[in-house]
Design a protein that fits this description.
single chain, 2 strands, 43% helix, 79 residues
Length: 79
C-alpha cells in the first residue's frame, strides 16, 4: 500500500510540474498576444475588433486576426 501511495505522489508531482510549465508558458504568451487569437490566427472574440479580417467568400468562418503579436497586453492584465 505505501509503495502505491509513493508512486501516486511521485506521478502527481511530475504531472504538476508539466502543467505548471504549460501554465507559465501560456501566461507569458498572453502578455504579448491577443487572448482572442487562436493557434490558427483566427479571432474568437464575440465583438468587433479593428484587427479582424473577414473573408467574404467564407462568411461562416472566423475572421483572421491581423493584429501584431508585438503588442504588450501586460498592463491590461495587471489592472
Amino acid at each position: 500500500m505505501k509503495n502505491n501511495k509513493r508512486k501516486l505522489e511521485s506521478s502527481l508531482k511530475n504531472l504538476w510540474e508539466i502543467y505548471k510549465d504549460i501554465a507559465n508558458t501560456a501566461t507569458e504568451i498572453s502578455k504579448s498576444r491577443c487572448p482572442y487569437k487562436n493557434a490558427k490566427d483566427h479571432c474568437t472574440a464575440n465583438f468587433g475588433c479593428r484587427n479582424q479580417y473577414k473573408n467574404t467568400s467564407e462568411p461562416k468562418q472566423l475572421p483572421i486576426c491581423i493584429g501584431s503579436d508585438k503588442l504588450n497586453y501586460k498592463d491590461a492584465w495587471l489592472n
